[in-house]
Amino acid sequence: MKKKIYYGNLIIDVKGKNKKLIDVVFKEGNELYKGNKIVEYEPIKVIGYENINKGHHKANKNEEQRNNITGSYE
User: Fold this and answer.
1) Contact call for residues 21 and 48 (beta carbons, < 8 A)
2) Where are the alpha helices (DSSP H) in 1-74?
3) φ, ψ dihedrals at 55, nearest 5°
4) pLDDT tens per residue, the chain (74 residues)?
5) Which helix (H) or strand (E) holds 36?
6) DSSP code, position 65
7) What is the Cα–Cα distance from 4 to 33, expressed in whole angstroms?
8) Which of 5, 24, 26, 74 lies most in the core, judged by the most C-beta atoms within 10 Å?
9) Which of 25, 60, 18, 53 lies closest to 39, judged by CA?
10) Per-domain boundaries in the chain
């Protein structure tokens, strides 16, 4: 399932103190933001979804040869 990407405000725990971050982008379900624990989040709106297609595909070599005079493929 794709996770939502939010734009909003976060309250994080930095060395035992709560700090409020305004206008940040964060992913749904994450417990950390830049190494700090998320205490509370206030999403303003959903700006997108994460890409779940993280695989790579093999590129095939082009077997056509260029014509030296015209430059077109043969």
Assistant:
1) no
2) none
3) -85, 165
4) 788 899 999 999 999 899 999 999 988 888 888 888 989 888 889 998 887 776 677 777 777 788 878 878 77
5) strand 36-49
6) -
7) 15
8) 26
9) 18
10) 4-49
CB atoms closer than 10 angstroms to residue 10: 23
- Burial of 32-47, coded b for 16+ CB within 10 Å and e otherwise, reads ebeeeeeeebeeeeee
- Cα separation, 2 vs 6, in Å, equals 13
How much is the pTM? 0.58
| Intra-chain end-to-end CA distance of the chain, in Å | 45
Residue where the block lists tokens 């939502």: 4
Q: Which of 51, 26, 22 is nearest to 37 (CA)?
A: 26
